[in-house]
Amino acid sequence: MNIPTDLSSYIRVLKLASTPDRDEFTQISLVAGAGIMLVGLLGFVIFVIMQFLPGGV
């Protein structure tokens, strides 16, 4: 592990990073929220199916 090389790589990445503007943040939030809702819906559907199967929860 070469610490000076690793540190310079981290600094280079931080220099390239920027704060998203309002539109970009809104779009990212909507996509992340939709993903969370989709995973929750999938879990709920699996729960409901397990309720109707014999030996379910």
From TrEMBL:
GO terms for cellular component: endomembrane system; plasma membrane. The keyword Cell inner membrane does not apply. Component of the Sec protein translocase complex. Heterotrimer consisting of SecY (alpha), SecG (beta) and SecE (gamma) subunits. The heterotrimers can form oligomers, although 1 heterotrimer is thought to be able to translocate proteins. Interacts with the ribosome. May interact with SecDF, and other proteins may be involved. The keyword Mitochondrion does not apply. This is Protein translocase subunit SecE. InterPro entries: Prot_translocase_SecE_dom_sf, Translocase_Sec61-g, Translocase_SecE/Sec61-g. It comes from the Archaea. The lineage of its organism: Archaea, Methanobacteriati, Methanobacteriota, Stenosarchaea group, Halobacteria. GO terms for molecular function: protein transmembrane transporter activity. Belongs to the SecE/SEC61-gamma family. Signal peptide: none annotated. It is found in: Cell membrane; Endomembrane system. One of its GO terms (biological process) is protein secretion. It comes from Halocatena salina.
